[in-house]
Specification:
It is built from seven helices and eight strands. It is of the alpha+beta class and 220 residues long. The longest helix has 17 residues. Its EC number is 1.8.4.11.
């Protein structure tokens, strides 16, 4: 990803050279919402890990990586990376609330990233990496606030949650090459060193709600 330590950036550049010819820069298409289905939107750092983590949950049909919280229409990855559009790297989750509740998705969200670091996730720095829970209804807003209170009271993190609680205005899908990136690029250095630990952290917290209970292991 961008704006990271020099050594990590060098590794990413080497990995990117091998994939540059096959990147599909067209924006992904958003799936139609099925009857009885609900949609949730979160931002928690690089969307590669959060997309994969949410996809691991029972009741989740599809997760799309994209951009939300900004002012520029149809932004590109490069534009968002300048930190001038206001967007955060986000995921949109299509799920069955009869199988997994919004409250449980929030538990997964707060477990799958560090919600206590302002405008930063590990080596990634900038408002495009900020932690945001976007709500569509007053009920969702109340559930987010309850989840923040629950997370703070658990003392799981040494510092208080700084996650923004923001109404969703519009979600723009990211380019096709970002979709399902974690699963398609298991040997990419950033995936192995940064994304994988975050996904495993989410899986551990949501052990009773996983589609597959087998631990993830990247190829050596």
């Amino acid at each position: 990803m961008k704006r990271i330590h020099i050594m990590m950036m060098s590794l990413l550049l080497l990995a990117g050279c091998a994939q540059g010819q096959s990147k599909d820069y067209a924006p992904a298409k958003l799936p139609a919402v099925k009857p009885g289905e609900a949609v949730a939107t979160f931002a928690g750092g690089c969307f590669w890990a959060l997309e994969e983590g949410m996809n691991q949950l029972k009741g989740v049909r599809e997760v799309i990586s994209g951009y939300a919280g900004g002012t520029v229409k149809n932004p590109t990855y490069e534009q968002v990376g300048t930190d001038r559009t206001g967007h955060a790297e986000s995921v949109q989750v299509y799920y069955d609330p009869k199988v997994i509740s919004y409250s449980q998705l929030l538990d997964a969200f707060f477990a799958g990233h560090d919600p206590t670091t302002l405008n930063r996730q590990g080596p990634d720095v900038g408002r495009d990496y900020r932690s945001v829970a976007f709500y569509r209804t007053p009920e969702e807003k109340a559930e987010i606030q309850a989840a923040i209170k629950r997370t703070n009271e658990s003392k799981h993190y040494a510092n208080p949650v700084v996650t923004e609680v923001t109404p969703l205005t519009v979600f723009y899908p990211a380019e096709n090459y970002h979709q399902n990136y974690f699963a398609l690029n298991p040997d990419q250095p950033y995936i192995r060193s940064v994304s994988l630990p975050k996904v495993e952290k989410l899986r551990k917290a949501m052990a009773g709600h996983l589609k597959n209970n087998t631990s993830l292991t990247m190829n050596e």
